[in-house]
Design goal:
The complex is a heterodimer of chains A (115) and B (413). Chain A is an alpha+beta fold. Chain A has 3 helices and 6 strands. The model of chain A has no long low-confidence stretch (mean pLDDT 91). The longest helix of chain B is centred in the first third of the chain and has 22 residues. Classes of the chains: A alpha+beta (115), B mainly alpha (413).
Chain lengths: 115, 413
C-alpha cells in the first residue's frame, strides 16, 4: 500500500455565493464521502483550508496577502489516503462532491525515502 | 451523534441569525450582517465535513454570538456610529438576546419588516424569502420563475425603502397591528400560491415554497399577539391545499385539476390539521377571504368523488368571497361550476358580468369555459370558435395540449 494525497483545487465556496441550503447539501456529500473512505480504511487524514493566503515570493521575500478571488486556482483542502495505485485513488476520487462547481482533484503520490 | 442534520437546518438558521444580528445592529447594517452570516455557514460546511459537532444548533448559535463581536469590531474600524454600543457589548446582554424566546421575537420583527406596506408588494416576497427564510438570490429566482437580476433589484430596492422610510425593527402593537398583520398574511399567501399554483414541473421547488409559507404561518400563530382568526384561516387553507399538492396535475385550472386528481393520494394528516385550524379560525364571527377560500378547499376535500362535490355550498362561498373581494376570476369560477351543474341560465348570468380582458393572461380560462357552455347548450360552432380563442391565448404548453385535445373531441361530435 502507498500513500496518496488528493488535492482539491478551485470550487471555493466563498466565491460561488452558495446558499445556506446548498452549503448544507454540499457538506452532507463531503460527510458521506469521508465516511465511505473511513469505513473502507482508506482515509489517513486531511484538512480544509481557509481561503485567505499570504504569499512570500522571490529573493526579496516579497509578501502579499491574497484572497481566493485573487488566486485563480486556490487549493481548498486535501485528503491523504492509502491505496494500491493511482487507479485505485482515481476510483476513490469519483465521489468528490464539487466537480459540478468547477472543482478539480489532483492526485499525488507521497514520496517514500528508503532508510 | 446522528450522522445527518435536520433538513434545512442551515437555511432556517440563516433567518434566525440575520434576525438576531439585525436586532443588535439595526436594519442599516443588513448587508454586513448577511455577509457575516454567510461566512458562518461556509465555515460550518467546511469544518463539519469530517465530523459533525455534537450540538450543531448550539455551534451555530455560538458562531452567531462571535459574529456580533466581529461585526462590532468591523463597524468600529469603519468608524461608523453605533448607538448604544459605544461602550462595548456586555456579554450578558448578548446572551440574553440568544434565548429562544428572544430569537423568536427577533424573527417576528424581521417578518413584519419584510412585509411592511412601505415596501413594494413584489419586493416584499423576495426580501422575506432572503432575510426571513434564508433563500439565496438564485433560489428565489428559480422559485419565482424570475431572472436573478430582477431579484437583485428587488432586494436592493427593498433595502433602500427600509432606510428611506426609516423603518423600525419592531413588532407593531395596538391599532397598527391588524393592518400590518394583514400585510404579513398577504405575503405568506402569495409565497404559498407561488408554490402551489406554479407551472414549474419540479415538485421539489414548489413544495419548498409551500412548506416555507406554512412554517412562517405556524410561527406567527405561536405569538399571542399575532394569533388572529385570519392567521388560523390562512393556515387551514395552506393545510387543505398542501394535502393534495403531491397529486396536483400542473394546470392553472383548479376545477379541471380536481376532477382528474387521484383522491386516494391526498394526505390525511394535513386535512385533519386543517380542520383543527379551521375550528379556531371561526371562533369569532368575522370571516376573511382566507376563511372562504379554506371553506371551499375543505368542501372539495370532503367529497369522496368529484361528482359528490357539494356545489351549492361552494357557490355560496364564492359569492361571499366575491362580496369581500370582487375579483373577476371568482365570477368565472361560479360560471364554471354552474356549467358543471348543467345550470346554464346561472352560467350565462355570470358570463355576462365578465369580459375576457378582465382576466388578462388567464383569459383562456374564460374562452375554455365559454366553449363548455356552448357545447352544453348545443351551439357547436360557437363552442369551436371559443376553444380556438382559448388555444390562441393559452401560454402553458400542458394546458395547450389539453385544449387541443378538447377541440378534437368537439369536432368529432
Amino acid at each position: 500500500m502507498k500513500e496518496f494525497m488528493m488535492i482539491f483545487v478551485g470550487a471555493d465556496y466563498a466565491d460561488l455565493g452558495l446558499s445556506p441550503e446548498e452549503l448544507q447539501n454540499r457538506m452532507g456529500k463531503w460527510f458521506a464521502w469521508g465516511n465511505k473512505m473511513g469505513e473502507a480504511g482508506y482515509l489517513k487524514g486531511g484538512n480544509a483550508l481557509n481561503p485567505n493566503m499570504r504569499r512570500i515570493v522571490g529573493k526579496e521575500r516579497t509578501i502579499t496577502d491574497l484572497t481566493s478571488a485573487e488566486v485563480k486556482e486556490i487549493v481548498g483542502g486535501y485528503y491523504v489516503v492509502e491505496a494500491k495505485d493511482f487507479d485505485a485513488v482515481q476510483e476513490i476520487a469519483q465521489d468528490y462532491p464539487d466537480y459540478d462547481l468547477g472543482g478539480t482533484v489532483e492526485i499525488r503520490e507521497v514520496m517514500v525515502f528508503d532508510s | 451523534m446522528n450522522d445527518t442534520l435536520i433538513d434545512h437546518l442551515f437555511r432556517h438558521h440563516s433567518g434566525k441569525m440575520v434576525s438576531i444580528l439585525t436586532r443588535v445592529f439595526g436594519l442599516s447594517h443588513l448587508e454586513t450582517i448577511e455577509d457575516a452570516v454567510q461566512d458562518t455557514f461556509i465555515k460550518a460546511s467546511l469544518s463539519w465535513r469530517t465530523t459533525l459537532p455534537d450540538n450543531p444548533e448550539g455551534w451555530l448559535i455560538k458562531a452567531a454570538k462571535n459574529r456580533v463581536i466581529d461585526i462590532f469590531r468591523k463597524l468600529k474600524n469603519e468608524e461608523k456610529k453605533i448607538l448604544n454600543f459605544d461602550k462595548g457589548i456586555s456579554s450578558i446582554a448578548i446572551n440574553e438576546l440568544f434565548l429562544d424566546t428572544e430569537i423568536e421575537d427577533a424573527q417576528l420583527r424581521m417578518i413584519f419588516t419584510a412585509c411592511h406596506p412601505k415596501l413594494d408588494s413584489k419586493d416584499r416576497i423576495s426580501f422575506a424569502l432572503k432575510t426571513v427564510s434564508g433563500f439565496s438570490i438564485k433560489e428565489i429566482a428559480s422559485a419565482l420563475l424570475t431572472k436573478e437580476n430582477t431579484i437583485k433589484k428587488r432586494l436592493s430596492r427593498a433595502k433602500k425603502a427600509i432606510i428611506t422610510a426609516n423603518l423600525k425593527f419592531q413588532i407593531p402593537l395596538g391599532k397598527e397591528l391588524p393592518k400590518r398583520l394583514d400585510s404579513v398574511l398577504e405575503v405568506l399567501y402569495l409565497i404559498f400560491n407561488e408554490g402551489f399554483h406554479s407551472n414549474k414541473k419540479e415538485i421539489l421547488i414548489r413544495k419548498e415554497l409551500c412548506g416555507e409559507a406554512m412554517r412562517l404561518c405556524k410561527f406567527i400563530l405561536k405569538n399571542k399577539h399575532t394569533q388572529h382568526p385570519n392567521t388560523y384561516a390562512l393556515f387551514a387553507l395552506m393545510c387543505f391545499h398542501s394535502a393534495r399538492l403531491q397529486s396536483k396535475i400542473t394546470t392553472e385550472n383548479e376545477l379541471l385539476d380536481l376532477k382528474n386528481q387521484d383522491r386516494s393520494t391526498w394526505y390525511l394528516p394535513l386535512i385533519s390539521l386543517g380542520n383543527t385550524m379551521m375550528t379556531k379560525a371561526v371562533e369569532q364571527n368575522e370571516f376573511s377571504t382566507y376563511h372562504y377560500e379554506a371553506a371551499i378547499a375543505a368542501e372539495h376535500l370532503k367529497a369522496t368523488t368529484f361528482k359528490l362535490t357539494n356545489w351549492d355550498k361552494i357557490l355560496y362561498y364564492y359569492d361571499c368571497l366575491y362580496a369581500i373581494q370582487p375579483m373577476p376570476i371568482y365570477l368565472l369560477t361560479i360560471a364554471v361550476i354552474a356549467i358543471q351543474n348543467k345550470d346554464y341560465t346561472t352560467a350565462k348570468l355570470y358570463f355576462d358580468k365578465l369580459n375576457p380582458e378582465d382576466l388578462s393572461q388567464r383569459s383562456y380560462l374564460y374562452y375554455g369555459a365559454k366553449s363548455d357552455y356552448y357545447k352544453g347548450t348545443h351551439q357547436l360552432q360557437k363552442a369551436i370558435l371559443n376553444i380556438d380563442l382559448a388555444i390562441k391565448t393559452v401560454i402553458n404548453q400542458l394546458e395547450k395540449k389539453y385544449l387541443i385535445r378538447k377541440k378534437e373531441v368537439l369536432e368529432n361530435h
